[in-house]
Amino acid sequence: MLKRNMRNRVNLSIFDVRLIEVPLSIVFWISRFCMINVLADKTMYYQTSPCPNYSPWKKAIAISGAVLRSSGEFHGDCRITFQVPYPDRQRFLLRFESVGIQECHDRLVIYDSDDLVDAVRLEEISCRSQVDPTRFMYTSNKGGYVTIRYYTYNKGEHASEFRLVLTAINKLHRLGKF
């Protein structure tokens, strides 16, 4: 089981200087003892695990930008929620760099909310979806949240992959007001 999890993972790269306050040597030893691959430098934060710190009750991660990437299948349901640093002035811009959902049991759903009960779906991608890499999506909720949920059931022979770029941008304003 450990071998399988080390081979199939979801990678999360967050570009936010405020999150990097740990020297590289400490990160190296934490990754060696906790069996989680973590790499850091002065401008990036990487965390690799099947579902990074997943908990249904966990608060959203405040970020300025991130690259969410899956490089292989694992059996499960992963959900991660992000929030812009300044919700009253910012929102998320989302863009797919690549999508390769091969199996029809797998899907990637993007919600415009932190609560999935009454959330608006920005996008739902499965094996039948065609994604235009030049298309942008914007969040519109007042809290500045976006939730990405990735379902995979490891039924087929082909690995499903995607690479999603999230960027916090300033909201358009009229007459000097946000």
Description:
The protein is mainly beta and 178 residues long. It has a single domain (2-170), classed as Spermadhesin, CUB domain (Jelly Rolls, Sandwich), CATH 2.60.120.290. It contains 2 helices and 12 strands; from the N terminus they run αβαβββββββββββ. The chain has helices at residues 2-7, 24-34, and strands spanning 10-14, 37-40, 45-49, 61-62, 65-70, 76-83, 90-100, 107-111, 121-125, 137-138, 145-152, 161-170. The strands form 2 sheets. It has a 7-stranded antiparallel sheet. It has a 5-stranded mixed sheet with strand order 4-6-11-8-9, with no helix packed on it. Strand 2 (37-40) and strand 3 form a beta hairpin. Mean pLDDT is 68; it is low at 1-50. InterPro entries: Sperma_CUB_dom_sf. It comes from Ramazzottius varieornatus (Water bear). This is CUB domain-containing protein.
